[in-house]
Write a structure and sequence with these properties.
Blueprint lengths: L11 H9 L7 E4 L2 E4 L5 H17 L4 E5 L15 E5 L15 E8 L3 H14 L5 E5 L4 E7 L6 E6 L4 E2 L8 E2 L10
Parallel strand pairs: 5-6
Antiparallel strand pairs: 1-2, 3-4, 4-5, 6-7, 7-8, 9-10
Length: 187
């Protein structure tokens, strides 16, 4: 997941401007001022994103938005497109802007071959922006890695969940049960 070398570090405004001029392709996103290529989605990744999107939408209230592979305004120089986010305010709250860190309750990245890169490139930026919870759905390891702030450490605490386990959902009384089919081998 090497960065595409722009002539200069970009901020979000310049990224948008250059995109609208056709100078930036659709298959990249902005992270730390650099253009990062989007990875092609294989079937297991696409299946996991779709399954999680439907499962989360069923258990969450209408006053939160479940956004699938859409931009978030992470910082002045980063506009990643996580696989899923849960944001305060419902869908209509984001008619005129992308969700910002104070609006984000949960960011979810699905990784089948990119877990290490996601941990190295994306997670530190999510943590630095103050995202309260991040899930890394690690398809190869067959588990969900849940990261939450740990005041006793300078990093986030990691908890691991397997199929059938229940994860707490931010601002929800309904837990999320890890679907067994999320990690099932294709038939």
């Amino acid at each position: 997941m090497a960065a595409v070398a722009p002539t200069q570090k970009l901020d979000r405004a310049e990224y948008r401007r250059r995109y609208e001029l056709g100078e930036i392709p659709d298959n990249v996103y902005l992270l730390g001022g650099e253009l990062v290529p989007k990875m092609p989605q294989n079937s297991p990744h696409a299946f996991a994103v779709s399954l999680l999107n439907r499962a989360l939408a069923r258990v969450l209230a209408l006053d939160v938005a479940v956004r699938c592979q859409l931009p978030i305004a992470l910082s002045d120089d980063s506009e990643p497109e996580p696989d899923l986010v849960i944001a305060r305010g419902g869908e209509s709250a984001f008619r005129d802007h992308h969700p910002t860190p104070p609006e984000l309750l949960l960011v979810i990245e699905v990784a089948d071959t990119t877990a290490l890169q996601d941990r190295r490139l994306k997670m530190p930026r999510y943590f630095a922006a103050g995202i309260p919870e991040v899930w890394l759905v690690d398809l190869a390891a067959r588990l969900i890695r849940r990261f939450t702030p740990d005041p006793a450490q300078l990093y986030y605490r990691e908890s691991q969940y397997a199929p059938g386990d229940e994860l707490p959902l931010p601002e929800s009384e309904t837990p999320f049960m890890v679907p067994a089919e999320l990690f099932a081998a294709p038939a």
